[in-house]
Structures are given as C-alpha cells and as structure tokens.
Amino acid sequence: xxxxxxxxxxxxxxxxIDSLSKEEKEVALYCxxxxxxxxxxxxxxxxxxxxxxxxxNLIAKVPGxxxxxxxxxxxxxxxxxxxxxxxxxxxxxxVKSDGTTILGADDKAGxxxxxxxxxxxxxxxxxxxxxxxxxxxxxxxGLVGAKELDYDLITAPWGxxxxxxxxxxxxxxxxxxxxxxxxxxxxxxxAGIAPETGLNAITLASQAIARLQLGRIDEETxxxxxxxxxxxxxxxxxxxxxxxxxxxxHDQKKLASVTEDICHSFKKLEQEGGNGLKPKVEIxxxxxxxxxxxxxxxxxxxxxxxxxxKMGIKMTxxxxxxxxxxxxxxxxxxxxxxxxxxxxxxxSVNEILKIExxxxxxxxxxxxxxxxxx
Length: 374
Ligand code: ZN
Ligand code: CA
What we know:
This protein is of the alpha+beta class.
C-alpha cells in the first residue's frame, strides 16, 4: 500500500530543507502544508518561546473510532551539524549525502514515513486508531522540544517514536544520564619567581581525574570526562581548570553512585590541598535525560511484534545507548518505544538510508495501526 516512490520523494524534499535545532520552521511549515493537503489540521504548540527557536512542536490529530485509544506517532524535525545545504545522492538502494554534510535521515526518514502513512490513509480504507502526530523540534540539543511540549494537547497513552536505525529493532530501554560541570580553583603565581605561593589547578584536576573509573564501568553504566580547559601561559601557575563530563546508566542507582564517585574525587581535593593551600571545587550536576524502560511484555510491544510477524519480520528488543524523545514521553506517562527507519551511522557525513527499509518501516506502521485494537 505504501507508495515507495512518493515516500522517497518526500524524504528527499525534507532533507533539502535546512533544519538545524531551533531553525525548524521551514521544514515544519512544509509538513503543515502536506498535512493540510491531506485534510489534516496541524498546529504549533507554545514551546517556541520557551525554547528560543523559530517554531514550536507541530501537532496534528487524525480522528479514528472512539472505541480505540489514540496512538501517538512521533519524529523530530531538527538535524545536527554539518547539516546545511544537504545534497542527497541516490545510489542503488541507498541515499547518502555528497560527503560534506550529514544526510538528515535522522530523523527526516521518520517524518517522511509518518507523512506517507497519512497519505495512504486518505486514499485507501485503512483501519487505524485515532492518531496524535507529533513532530518535535530541538531533539538533538537535549530533547528540549519534547521536554517543553504542551502535554495538555496529547491524550494518547502509548506512542511510537520513529527515530531508530534497524527496522528489526524495538528499542524499549535507554539509559539515564547526568552531565557534570566542575571547576577547580587553585591560586595563580609566577611560575619562575614565586611558584611556592601558587596552587596549580591543572595538577589538582589531574589528580582527581587520575583516580576516576571511566569508560565502561559495567554492562549498564559508562562515564566520561570529555572536556578540559585551563591555564593561561607556561610561566603562570594556573588558578582555574574547568572540566565537563557525563555518566550514563540503565540503572538509576548506579548512575547516582557513579556521579557521586566523580564528585567525591574532586571534592577530596579541598581536603588534600597542596603547597599548604586549600583549593576550592565547584560542581554542578544536572540530569541530561531520564531513564526509559518499557516492560518487555507491555501490550504495545506485543502489538509491534505481532504486526512484524504478519509481515515476516523478526523483531528483537534493543537497549539504546542514549536519550531520545521517547525517554521524555515515558516520564510524561506516554508509554513509548522507538522503531527503526532504515537509517544508519547518523551524526556523521557517512550517514545513509536504506530505501527498502524505510518503505518496510512505513508498511510495518500501517500493519500495526490496522490491528485496530491499539
Ligand atoms: Zn534522531
Ligand atoms: Ca540524532
């Protein structure tokens, strides 16, 4: 039922419209126009002001039988850098960029799939529950579009987020993450004339970092120090080092414990001191995104597996490695899983989209909706 050529055309049109985070308006208006042509009214929520972007999340409702509970379908409109002036190259059964930008299949493939499904629904008799279409903004800069979404506008208890890679994966789990910003204050001094009056913040910070457990801590948990900045000149004992790090885990307690270990290692510097001086350490921890976990026997997952089985696709449950809008939806009470769109190696100039998989993904969603009882 999916019109493959039309789906591909829509995808190609979407990726040619620049839409870096906070600059999604043009592509959102394109989607709004497509929906309008189908006869579906799509409206922006009020998140634009709070996000400081040029538009908010785009939301549309498609009526269905009152006896069915609504289902949310979501994809995000923004893309990462380098993402301006994308020139798609269609080769064999894949789409790639010209090598100077990302492709933007993350997540325009998801957007194209949703638009195609709605077009099919207009043309053919397709059973489906009431749908709540959500095109979010600012996913790539901390899921803030989803965080700031007007949830009063959504009534669906379940959602499908089309923002995964492999079309045989159902992502039902994703970690929670903390971001740490740390400042180590020492004391400045001339390195040649009076080093004994100084307290070297670089030395201190390196002591704290050296005793951290970083990388993969266990199967569920990782930690990283990713940025370090400090010092002014070789002849000055540096008085400040700024460090940025993160920790992630599929287990809330483990995340808390790893975060605590990192904080403790730096805080310890205040007691240890050096050169008879006591440094000052400032630490700010903020949650990047909350944990996502949908139980594997949840009816939504069963429905997805059932639809896949009808199509002869063997699905597997997958644990994601990072946050997505689905993390946020789940904390807002919308049980959501992530399905694949056929994209791979996102966030790189080597990003590609398998056209056949995008088409299959669209068919899978149609089959899922057609089970009626969602
Ligand atoms: Zn994405
Ligand atoms: Ca992404």
